[in-house]
Automatic annotation (TrEMBL):
It is found in: Cell membrane. InterPro entries: LeuE-type. This is Lysine/threonine exporter LysE/YggA. It comes from Acetobacter indonesiensis. The keyword Cell membrane applies. One of its GO terms (cellular component) is plasma membrane. Keywords: Cell membrane, Membrane, Transmembrane, Transmembrane helix. Pfam families: LysE (PF01810). The chain crosses the membrane at residues 12-31, 43-68, 74-96, 123-144, 150-170.
């Protein structure tokens, strides 16, 4: 393939991926919560974790993880159940924690714990969503030529990684500003409750729904 053809393929994948990236979902919810309740660094580390997860799924999609799932359906079942249980446990922790009395100035009194955990939370939340590998593999199958070069595949993965970290870093930076955080901190218990219910609901759905 020529450089122009490669660029056309990357552009078509980028056009679809940017829409998927900016749509609110579990990743967006996690970054928003950390930015508002724990500060910019915790949210930025989560953004990096999410982007790494996207990159890993992108590599898996390029190297044909869908074929592996077809050959060994139990692998996808393990991914769905394991991911669902992780999201459910995270939701329970958020929901239960929302009923505990919080310090008046959460941003100043307890940012360090979540900052350390930010990257891991972002990575695991992204990897735990079984819809991501299905979408990525479908996107690559529909957009990449059958004999796509290694360079083209890796370029698409780098593009997806860059979009993910750019978008979530922007969200983390904007929502950690004092004017936003001060307003939402007054509602921090309800933020955690809504986030907890959402994570629990999706966790149950992922763990119990039938494979497509």
């Amino acid at each position: 393939m020529t450089f122009t053809q490669d660029l056309s393929v990357i552009s078509s994948i980028a056009a679809l991926w940017i829409v998927v990236t900016i749509m609110p979902g579990l990743d967006f919810l996690l970054v928003t919560r950390l930015a508002i309740l724990q500060g910019r660094m915790a949210a930025l580390r989560a953004a990096l974790g999410i982007a790494v997860g996207v990159g890993l799924w992108g590599l898996a999609g390029f190297f044909g993880i869908r074929a592996l799932f077809v050959a060994a359906p139990w692998l996808y079942l393990v991914l769905k159940i394991g991911g669902g249980l992780y999201l459910f446990a995270l939701g329970v922790r958020l929901f239960v924690g929302s009923w505990k009395k919080q310090p008046e100035d959460t941003m100043q009194s307890a940012p360090n714990m979540e900052t350390v955990k930010g990257f891991r939370m972002g990575l695991l939340t992204n990897l735990a969503n079984p819809k991501v590998p299905v979408f990525v593999t479908s996107l690559f199958a529909a957009s990449l030529p059958q004999q796509a070069s290694m360079g083209l595949g890796l370029s698409c993965v780098v593009m997806m990684f860059g979009m993910a970290i750019g978008w979530y870093a922007l969200v983390a930076t904007l929502l950690s500003l004092r004017r936003f955080s001060a307003m939402f901190l007054r509602c921090r218990q309800w933020i955690d409750r809504v986030a907890g219910v959402a994570f629990m609901g999706l966790g149950i759905r992922f763990a119990t729904e039938r494979s497509a």
